[in-house]
Amino acid sequence: MIYLDNAATTKPNENAIRRAEEYLREKFYNPSAMYTEGYALQGELKKARSILLSSIASETDFEIIFTSCGTESDNHAVFSMAKRGNAVTTSGEHSAVYACFVELKNRGVIEARYAPLNKDGSVNEEKLLELVDAKTSFVSVIHVNNETGAINDVNRLARLVKAKNPRVIFHSDGVQAFGKIPFKLAKEVDLYSISAHKIGGLKGVGALIKRKTLTISPLLYGGGQESGRRSGTENVFGIMQFAFSAQEKFASFKEDFTRLKEYRRLLTDGLDKSVYTVLSGENASPYVTSISAVGLRGEILLHMVNDKGLIVGTGSACSSNAKNRYSRVILACGFDEKTADGVLRVSFCEKTTEDEVRAAVDILNELGRELKARME
Amino acid sequence: MKKTIIIRYAELFLKGKNRGFFERAFEKNIEMALTGISHKLIKQCGRYLVVDFEEFEIEEILTRLKKVFGIHTMSVAYETDANMDAIFETAKIVCRQSGTFKVVSHRGDKKFPMTSVEISRELGGRLLSVYHDLKVDVHEPDFSVFVDIREGGKALVFGEFVEGANGMPVGTAGKGLLLISGGIDSPVAGYMMAKRGMNVDCLHFHSYPYTNMQAKEKVIDLAKTLAQYSCGTHLCTVSVTHIQEEIHKKCRPELMITLLRRFMFRIAERHAKRIGAQCLITGESLGQVASQTIEGITSSNSVIEELPVLRPLIGFDKNEIIDKSVKMGAYEISILPYEDCCTVFLPDFPATRPKLKDILREEAKLDVEGLIQTAFESMDKLVF
Q1: By the CB < 8 Å criterion, does B339 face chain A?
Q2: What pTM did the predictor assign?
Q3: ipTM above 0.90, yes or no
Q4: Domain limits, chain B
Q5: CATH node for B175-383
Q6: How far apart (Å, rounded) are the C-alpha atoms in residues B84 and B102?
C-alpha cells in the first residue's frame, strides 16, 4: 500500500515511540503529584517543551501550552482572543479556525471578516490588510494551506498587520507547516498552533505556541496544569513522543524539503494532462499537492486507486447536500464546481520514496483514464 | 422494595386456536430483547411479568421492551405482601399527594378476604387520611392507583401505564425482503411490516466506487435500527455499478432510473425466493419521486414474476413518514448526507411517465441475465 495522505495524518515515528515507551510503562505517574516519581516528570516535560519550541521559535520570547490537538489549539487562540470589534481571517482557513469565526459571529461577539484567496490558495495580502482597521482585535492566517499547500508568509503578514494596528493579536495555524517548512517565528506572531500527528507524533497531542508576554485566558478550567492555561493531566507519553519525533523531523527537514520538491515535480510532470489539472502553485509546500480530474468525481477516483493500493485524500466529502459537496477552500481559490468535484489531495511525508511517487503517478493515470472512459 | 414489570399484550387474544403459536413467538421476542439482562419472564393469565432483575436495569428493560411488537402497555409495579397495611404503605409511594384519583383493584387470588370494591374503598380512605389535598373522582381522575392481589400472598401496586409498540409479535406473519436504501422511507416500510408480525430481511444496492464506505455504514446502521424491532435481520448488499455503467453506455439517459429499478426488482425477487421470503417490501410512496409515479411503479413492478410487492407507505405523506422514522429512531441516521445510490449517472430530467415499449426497446440492448448474474457474485451478507 502506498500511503500519500500524510496531510491527514502520518504514520507514528517508531523510534520516537520506543524512546517514549518508558513514559507509558514505567514513568506513568501524574506529573502534578508531590512525590518524587511524579514531580520528576515535570522536568521531562520541560525538556520536551524545549525541544519543540527551540525548533521553531526563540525560547526567550515564546512558550508552549500543550493541548489535545491542533483544533483545540486553534479554538483556544480564537475564543480567547477574538473578543471585540472585528476579527479577520482568510477564506482558506482550516475549519478549526473557520468554524470558530462563524460561531463567534453567530453569537454576536465579533464581526467576522474573510480575506479572499489567490488562485493557488494563498491569501490575497493586499485585501487582507484592507480588512484590518482600528477596530480589529484578532487576525488569523493559516501558514500552509491544508488543501493546496499554499504557503502564506505569516511573519511578514504579522508585521504588516501590526504596522496598521499594533493592538491586533496575530495567530497562525501552523499544523501543516511545523517540521516541514524552514521557518522561525517572528516576534509579531502572538500565537501559533501545531499538531503532533502530522509529523510522526500521535493523534491527541497538540500545542499552542504563545508569545510569553501575552496573557491568554484558558479554554479548559480545572487542576491548573500548563500554568493554569490548559487544565487536564498532561499526556506525558504523547508529549514525549511528539518531542522525539519532532527532533528527528527537524534534523532532516531542509533535505526533506528539497527532495520532496523533486518528488512533487515527478508527480505534477507525470500526471496525464488530459485527465488532471494541478491546482497547487509552484511555490506550494512540497508536502501537499492538490490536483483535479476536472469533470470526474474525486471521491470515485479515490475509491478506485484505493482498490489498486494507493491511498490519497480528497478535498471534498461525497455528500448529496450540494452546499457541502465541494471544498470551500477550492471554490474560494476561484475554481469552478466541476474542478472542485474532481479534487484529489496527494500529500507526502519525509519517508515517501521516489518509487512510490512513480507508482502513484501510474495508478492515478491508469484509473483516471479508465473512469473518464466509463463516464463518456 | 422489589419491583416487577407487567407486560400486557395487544391483539393476541383475537387469535383463538393459534394463540399458543402467537404466545411462543411473543415470549421468544421478549427474551431476545432482554438478552444480556438477568431476569425471569413469567406467564400469567392474560399478561406476562418480568421479575428478578436489578433495579438499575428498569429503564433499559422498558426501552428495549418498547421495541417489541405485540406489547400493548407495561407498568412498573411494586411487589408487597398481600395485606392491607403493606399495600397501604406501598400505595403511599405510588400515590401523588394532591389532585383527583381513584383506586382500581383486581383480585386474582379469590381467597383474599376482601372483594375488589372493598379493597379500593379501604385503600382510598386510608390514602385520603394521609394526603389531605387528594380528592376521589372515579370518572375522570388525574391518576389512578392500581392494586393487584396475586396468588401466593403477594400484591402488585402501581400507578402508571407505559405505551408499548402494539402490533403483532414478529415471526407470526411470514418473511419479507425489504429493499433498503439509506433514505428515510425504506426503514419505515420495514418497521411497519415488522409491526404486523413479519420477519424482515434486507437487501441493499450500492454503486461502489461511485458511492462510498460511509454510505454503506449508514445502511448498516439503519438495518441495525430496524433489527431492534424485527428481532434481528440479515442484510445483503449487492453492487449494481456494472449495471449502471452498461445502461449509461447503451441506453437513453432519461430511462436510467427506470431501467435500474427493473434490475433491482429482478435481483430482489430472485434473492427473496432463495432465502424463503414470501414478498418484497419497498418504501415507495405514490408520486414522491419520478420513479414512484404509477407509471414508474408499473414499469418496475412488471418484471416481478410471482411474489407480491408490499408498499406499506404508498398512501403516506412525507411528513407522516418522517414522524414514523423519528419514532423508530432511524431519522437521524437517514438524514446523514451520504449518497446511497450513485447520482453520477442520474439524468437531469428522469422520465416521470416511462412507456413500457420504450423501456423494453432500451432493455433489449442489455445482457439482462449476465448483468444479474454478475450482481449476485458481488453479494455480501451481514447478520444483526
Answers
A1: yes
A2: 0.85
A3: no
A4: 3-163, 175-383
A5: 3.40.50.620
A6: 17
